[in-house]
Amino acid sequence: MRLQPARGRIQQSIGQRLSARLVVSKSGLRVLHGGAGTSAALFRAGIPGVFIPHGDFYDQRYWAQLAEELGCAVPAIPFQN
């Protein structure tokens, strides 16, 4: 089975759609920017994460630090262009 992105969802090559939440819950690790929504999905799924915040704005560094303190993630990796 090959998974391909399809408008915010993941679609199998046979045409069935899978929710991103289902795919995340089956993952062993998640790499994310650290916004509130993606961080919440990580916490709900109960899997470890690698945060790459896109700068020092918004709440991305906060979620990365909280996840690290809770043992859910390694220290955040700085985003570089």
Write up this protein.
With 81 residues, the chain is α+β, with helices and mostly antiparallel strands. The chain is 32% helix and 20% strand. It has a single domain (3-69), classed as Rossmann fold (3-Layer(aba) Sandwich). It has three helices and five strands, in the order E-E-E-H-E-H-E-H. The strands form two sheets. A three-stranded antiparallel β-sheet has the order 1-2-3. A two-stranded parallel ribbon has the order 4-5. The N and C termini lie far apart (33 Å). The model has no long low-confidence stretch (mean pLDDT 78).
Quick gist of this model?
The protein has 81 residues and is α+β, with helices and mostly antiparallel strands. It is 32% helix and 20% strand. The strands form two sheets. A three-stranded antiparallel beta sheet has the order 1-2-3. Strands 4-5 form a two-stranded parallel ribbon.
Secondary structure layout:
Blueprint: E1 3-6, E2 9-12, E3 17-18, H1 20-25, E4 30-32, H2 36-45, E5 49-51, H3 60-69
Parallel strand pairs: 4-5
Antiparallel strand pairs: 1-2, 2-3
Sheet with the most strands?
A: 3 strands, antiparallel
* Total number of distinct structural domains: 1
Helix and strand element order: EEEHEHEH
Total beta strands: 5
The CATH architecture designation is 3-Layer(aba) Sandwich
